[in-house]
Amino acid sequence: VQLVESGGGLVQPGGTLRLSCTASGFTFRWSTMHWVRQAPGKGLQWVCDISPAGSVTSYTSSVKGRFTISRDNTANTLSLQMNNLKSEDTALYYCATDSSGANRGQGTQVTVSS
């Protein structure tokens, strides 16, 4: 299993970012996929997930209405559109094949700061 995240960066509060994850080494279209994050000095936090067909999504309450998870099963890619970013969204973001993040990529850093 290989997961490679990209798209992170430095953004001001209220800004937007779009993260991507390219997956290989497993049957992506059969897998529920997750985004998890780790803020400085804290443990891994589950952020959201999407069903194999992309028809069902779930979000942690703090990002609901601001983040949108999506997937492209033809390209084996997972995305996370993040709008109205807040300082508390600052973290290393990972895509993962499980909600605990045990099987995750190397991560992409998102920093929200003025």
Summary, kept brief:
With 114 residues, the chain is mostly beta strands. It has no helices and 10 strands. The chain has strands at 2-6, 9-11, 17-24, 33-38, 44-50, 57-59, 67-72, 77-82, 91-96, 108-112.
Present the secondary structure layout.
Blueprint: E1 2-6, E2 9-11, E3 17-24, E4 33-38, E5 44-50, E6 57-59, E7 67-72, E8 77-82, E9 91-96, E10 108-112
Parallel strand pairs: 2-10
Antiparallel strand pairs: 1-3, 3-8, 4-5, 4-9, 5-6, 7-8, 9-10
| Helical proportion, percent range | under 10%
Q: What is the helix/strand order?
A: EEEEEEEEEE
What number is the mean pLDDT?
97
Classification by helices and strands: mainly beta
Radius of gyration: 13 Å
Number of strands: 10
The parts where pLDDT drops under 50 for at least 5 residues are none
Describe the structure.
Strand 7 and strand 8 (77-82) form a beta hairpin. With 114 residues, the chain is mainly beta. It is globular, with a radius of gyration of 13 Å. The protein has strands spanning 2-6, 9-11, 17-24, 33-38, 44-50, 57-59, 67-72, 77-82, 91-96, 108-112. The chain contains no helices and 10 strands. The strands form 2 sheets. It has a 6-stranded mixed sheet with strand order 2-10-9-4-5-6, with no helix packed on it. A 4-stranded antiparallel sheet has the order 1-3-8-7, with no helix packed on it.
What labels describe this entry?
single chain, 114 residues, mainly beta, six-stranded mixed sheet, four-stranded antiparallel sheet, 10 strands, 0% helix, 48% strand
